[in-house]
Write a structure and sequence with these properties.
The structure holds three protein chains of three kinds.
Chain A lengths: L1 E3 L2 E3 L7 H7 L8 E5 L2 E3 L14 E6 L5
Chain B lengths: L2 E6 L4 E6 L9 H14 L16 E5 L13 E6 L6 E6 L3 H7 L2 E7 L8 E5 L5 E5 L8 H12 L3 E5 L2 H4 L7 E3 L9 E3 L4 H7 L2 E7 L12 H19 L3 H4 L5 H8 L20 H11 L2 E4 L10 E5 L5 E4 L3 H7 L8 H14 L3 H13 L8 H13 L4 H5 L2 H7 L7 E2 L2 E2 L9 H9 L24 H18 L2 H7 L5 H10 L6 H21 L12 H4 L13 H5 L5
Parallel strand pairs in B: 1-6, 7-12
Antiparallel strand pairs in B: 1-2, 3-4, 3-6, 4-5, 7-8, 9-10, 9-12, 10-11, 13-14, 14-15, 16-17
Chain C lengths: L10 E3 L7 H7 L4 E5 L2 H5 L3 H10 L3 E5 L8 H12 L5 E6 L1 H14 L10 E2 L9 E5 L11 E6 L4 E6 L7 E4 L9 H19 L6 H23 L4 H21 L3 H13 L3 H6 L2 H22 L10 H18 L12 H6 L1 H6 L12 H12 L2
Parallel strand pairs in C: 1-9, 2-3, 2-4, 4-6, 5-8, 6-9
Antiparallel strand pairs in C: 7-8
Helix pairs in contact in C: 1-3, 4-5, 6-7, 6-8, 6-11, 7-8, 11-12
Classes of the chains: A mainly beta, B alpha+beta, C alpha/beta.
């Protein structure tokens, strides 16, 4: 099982970060920062980052300022 | 029963009194507005008085939920008539002061009068709750880091320190009051805007040092069960929302990932251009340096905070450099000055904290200085040298210390980004028009935290719903700033109605959200406007600088073209 | 001001155009249609010919005839459940706003899990559903042109919209033949809804030159032809013109958005259970008058499109008053009652002014007003 913002998805071997983001309908071209198990992954690497069963992905939208 | 502390600098006395019954259900921004309006109504303060004169009062107060376990209830507010804007000023901050003030049983500390003997003092509240003014001559012109070190030596680590640096002592209009962070004690949280540090300086008060009391004050609840149930639900909700909050995960620097992409990031003194290399100051770069050098993020600046947006930043040698390193500082010293060296900006952040000055005024002032040709664009070392002059009080330093408008006027600049004499912050108003409306109309002067509308209208650079968003948020932030931290508030909105339960649980009375939305929200805003009107402000003061209306942003083609009627009616309730 | 125009649904227009539905959908490669309509469409004999037309083109139809007015979320979720398992590759909606909004709600739930209420608001990242084909039978809500659907949340007792690209149709058949049987009262009420779309979009904050052109034309057409369609439902030209105007007005407001008229309409409709078009019409004259302060040029456009000349040096107050009187006369001309005549009690009406200012559409009004000002509009319109 993979989670994206705590939503559950089945894990399939060979799945990339880009795959799961698309499945979760994340707007990767917007101001979104993605972490995998707490580590930031840069956008260019979404396609080459393979997932493992149990991985937790956060898709974090930058909305406000401070 | 809560208490208040009256500090008289003319007589060098400190008096503890019961906290006013009628202020019990006020705190933070709402309390500041009411207190200063009451001073005016009772004839104790002429609203047109010189803010650096004898009539102005410097107030430190907690939020209305201080002393409880509701997350971020320990924000601290500094209130006064602003030496920079001349209007009502509430500068809020995180840090440890709110917690220790509440533990000591104080909702409010007010500092009155001017010292007659020219001496510098600090206020000390000890473990038993005794409060006294102590000679601070040996701390004259010391930076805030040295002040904190001195206090730690005297009183140990269980303290909070609010202090001014040389900027406040030199009465610079951009002077801040630095507040030590929970845990680290670094003086990197700050009541920054409006020159509150100058007021503290003219009153001869170097610091307020509060020791953790042996017997902490216990809050009395009208209905403790109701409070605890609501607080439990709200805290859990905020903790959950924080998991996907960029401020928790990365820090406020993450904002640049959005503003850099869409033209909201200020570039070259608000030229409206895009900055190609904004990612040099982005999250990836920032996290990489933290990891490699021993810094960290996800730090709470006050106990119990569930958002934990603060950070500690080390230099290339792995040594501590600065903390509370925030988007505004990075944007305004950064692309606004064509500087993209994160380490050099961190040095500037450290210097500003140590000198005790508002980084927003400084960043915009340096942008204006570069635009006027005093420095080259991108000259980070030149900026650092100018900041050092300011610490020493020499050369261009005093002008810089008076902030963005002073620098602009001194250099004959045509493009000075201020409203009510206060510098606008890290958002170009042409490309987030609702924020532009906030800058123009907010009684605090140009203030983005008062209502940053980015992402809340259809198109940030368009017209639709901008005035609506600014109005709604300005009200919301008024009550948020009276009870909690804005960053926790932005995560609690779906459960906002439970704030009424907190008020009822703590103070009794009906569970009625209008106690919050109107009582602390709308009424505060209208009171602030009324104060400003008495202080001499007119509709002319609710305008953005002309150049935003005429110069097109190269990033979006936009000018600030909001119909003035929309702004005139913004506060019709 | 930089504006944009984004949302567009291609139409096939004219008398008899709905007879092309079978061959058109076949040519697009569709094989199985989920057809959504209400029992009225069956009873009036509108649904069956279309289903047969599909069948003759070898397109199988799975029918859902349970559309209810002010589509309740429970009904939409039930329909979506059937649609998801039906193996259909296109959705066809026949009817007024309720049928079309039901279809859109179903489409949201094809690849996004229920409940639909979690998707209220602007949704940029919903998973796409099926192509949608709209066959409006009123002129009209313009729902065939928009990117939103209004759903009633039964459990919370409120209505809200899902705004998303998933709610945008692929094709619309605008066949005036299907509106020939609409009686005078619904003709007037749906017609005034189209009129409200046009005048609100032209004075709204997202107005742009393209939507303004469409709105002006719609106002001109409705002004001339709606009275005729109300007086004589068999007037083919009137029905054709109204279908066209409704579509133009829909195109205008789908991009420029509506504002105070509809915020008032939603509040009055929800509280006093008045049909949507009528609820929007009650205070429309006062609403347009109010907009003149910041949109006087646009209000002049409205007057001129209704055949009224505005004096050169008129102040915005005068322009507003002229528009108010003109629009009110038009509303009366098509036989619509005012609030007093509709049996709405004045005291109860004044009480809902704060509901108007709390409507989500209130964010879109040209300049801020107070609930007290809305109450003034109510008073002015009440027995006008």
């Amino acid at each position: 099982m993979i989670t994206v913002n705590e939503r559950n998805y089945d894990f399939r071997s060979g799945m990339t970060l880009l795959d799961i983001l698309k499945t979760d309908a994340v707007d990767i071209h917007g101001a979104v920062l993605v972490t995998l198990n707490g580590s930031l992954i840069s956008k260019e690497k979404y396609n080459e980052t393979l997932l493992n069963d149990g991985d937790a992905v956060l898709a974090i939208k930058v909305v406000s300022g401070g | 029963m809560w208490s208040k502390l009256i500090v008289n600098m003319a007589e060098a006395t400190v008096t503890k009194l019961p906290y006013d019954e009628e202020y019990l259900q006020l705190g933070g921004r709402a309390l500041v507005a009411n207190y200063f309006m009451d001073l005016v109504k009772t004839g104790k303060m002429d609203p047109k008085c010189d803010p650096m004169g004898e009539q102005n009062v410097l107030m430190f107060c907690t939020g209305v939920l201080a002393g409880t376990n509701f997350t971020t209830s320990y924000r601290i507010s500094v209130g006064c008539k602003s030496p920079l804007t001349g209007g009502i000023k509430e500068a809020s901050s995180g840090g440890y002061m709110g917690k220790l003030m509440a533990d000591q049983g104080y909702r409010m500390i007010t500092v009155h009068g001017l010292p007659q003997d020219g001496k510098l003092r600090y206020l000390h509240i000890d473990k038993e709750g005794n409060a006294e003014l102590v000679d601070a001559e040996d701390l004259r012109l010391k930076g805030t880091y040295d002040v904190v070190d001195a206090m730690r030596e005297r009183y140990g680590d269980g303290i909070s320190v609010a202090c001014i640096g040389p900027a406040g002592e030199r009465l610079y209009k951009a002077a801040s009051i630095q507040i030590s962070e929970f845990g680290t004690l670094h003086p990197s949280r700050v009541a920054a805007r409006g020159g509150v540090g100058a007021l503290m300086g003219v009153k001869g008060l170097k610091a307020v040092v509060i020791e953790k009391p042996t017997i902490p004050y216990k809050v009395e609840y009208a209905d403790e069960a109701m409070f605890r149930e609501a607080a439990k639900e709200l805290n859990a909700f905020i903790a959950g929302a924080a998991k996907v909050d960029p401020f928790h995960n990365f820090g406020t620097i993450s904002t640049i990932e959005k503003t850099g992409a869409n033209g909201i990031l200020p570039v070259e003194n608000f030229s409206g251009k895009l900055y190609k290399d904004y990612k040099k100051l982005g999250v990836e770069e920032f996290l990489g340096r933290l990891a490699a050098r021993g810094g960290c993020n996800k730090k709470p600046c006050q106990p119990g905070c569930l958002v934990q947006c603060s950070n500690v930043y080390h230099d290339a040698d792995g040594k501590y450099l600065t903390s509370g390193f925030e988007y505004e500082t990075i944007a305004l010293f950064g692309p606004n000055c064509r500087i993209d060296d994160l380490d050099k900006i961190a040095v500037m952040d450290r210097m500003c904290d140590d000198i005790g000055v508002d980084t927003i005024e400084m960043g915009t002032a340096c942008g204006v200085a570069m635009d006027a040709g005093k420095l080259e664009w991108g000259d980070a070392d030149g900026v650092i040298a100018m900041l050092e002059e300011m610490r020493q009080g020499v050369g261009f330093g005093p002008t810089l210390g008076d902030g963005c408008e002073a620098v602009g006027l001194a250099l004959g600049a045509k493009r000075i980004p201020t409203v009510k004499h206060q510098a606008i912050s890290g958002y170009d108003p042409r490309n987030t028009k609702g924020t532009g409306i906030t800058y123009a109309t907010c009684p605090q002067g140009a203030d983005h935290t008062a209502a940053l509308t980015m992402g809340r209208a259809f198109d940030d650079a368009g017209r639709t719903a901008q005035a609506y968003a600014s109005n709604k948020l300005q009200v919301a932030i008024c009550f948020s700033d009276s009870m909690m931290c804005l960053f926790a508030f932005s995560n609690v909105v779906p459960k906002m109605h439970l704030l009424a339960n907190l008020m009822s649980g703590l103070y009794g009375g009906p569970v009625d959200i209008t106690r919050v939305t109107i009582g602390l929200g709308v009424k505060t805003l209208l009171t602030e406007r009324a104060f400003n009107k008495l202080a001499g402000f007119t509709d002319e003061d609710d305008k953005l600088p002309e150049f935003f209306l005429t110069e097109r942003s190269a990033a979006t083609g936009a000018v600030f073209d909001i119909n003035p009627v929309e702004m005139e009616v913004l506060f019709d309730f | 001001m930089i504006t944009s125009y984004e949302c567009f649904v291609p139409p096939i227009m004219g008398f008899g155009s709905s007879k092309r539905i079978g061959i058109t959908l076949r040519a697009k490669g569709y094989k199985k249609a989920f057809v959504i309509y209400d029992k009225g469409m069956k009873d009036f004999g509108i649904a069956d010919p279309i289903i047969e037309n599909l069948d003759m083109a070898n397109i199988e139809a799975v029918c859902f005839d349970g559309v209810l007015p002010d589509p309740p979320d429970e009904m939409v979720e039930a329909a979506a459940g059937i649609a998801r398992n039906s193996g259909c590759d296109v959705i066809v909606a026949i009817g007024g706003g309720s049928s079309m909004d039901t279809a859109k709600g179903v489409n949201v739930l094809i690849n996004n899990p229920p409940p639909i209420k979690q998707y209220f608001g602007v949704q940029k990242n919903l998973r796409p559903g099926l192509p949608m084909v709209f066959v409006p039978t009123t002129s009209g809500t313009g729902s065939e042109t928009t990117n939103m659907c209004v759903i009633s949340c039964v459990s919370e007792g409120k209505k809200d919209s899902v705004v998303s690209p998933v709610c945008v149709g692929t094709l619309a058949f605008l066949d005036p033949e299907l509106t020939m049987g609409l009686p005078p009262k619904p003709t007037a009420m749906t017609g005034i809804d189209a009129f409200a779309h046009a005048v609100e979009s032209i004075t709204g904050a997202q107005a742009n030159p393209l939507s303004d052109a469409l709105a002006r034309d719609a106002i001109r057409t409705i002004n001339k032809w709606l009275p005729r369609a109300v007086d004589n439902g068999k007037d083919q030209v009137a029905r054709e013109k109204m279908m066209e105007a409704s579509f133009f007005a829909g195109m205008a407001f789908t991009n420029a958005l509506v504002h105070l008229g509809h915020s008032i309409g939603h509040s009055i409709g929800a509280t006093f259970h008045v049909p949507h078009g009528l609820a929007c019409a009650f205070c429309l004259p006062e609403v347009i008058e109010y907009t003149a302060r910041t949109e006087s040029e646009k209000v002049v456009m409205i007057c001129e499109a209704m055949g009224v000349t505005v004096p050169e040096n008129a102040t915005w107050q005068e322009i507003g008053a002229l528009a108010k009187d003109t629009i009110r006369a038009f509303i009366k001309r098509i036989g619509l009652p005012n609030m007093e005549e509709s049996g709405i009690p004045l005291e109860a009406l004044l009480k809902i002014a704060p509901m108007v200012t709390a409507d989500t559409g209130f964010a879109l009004i040209p300049y801020r007003i107070t609930a007290a000002r809305v109450a003034e509009m109510f008073r002015s319109a009440y027995s006008a």
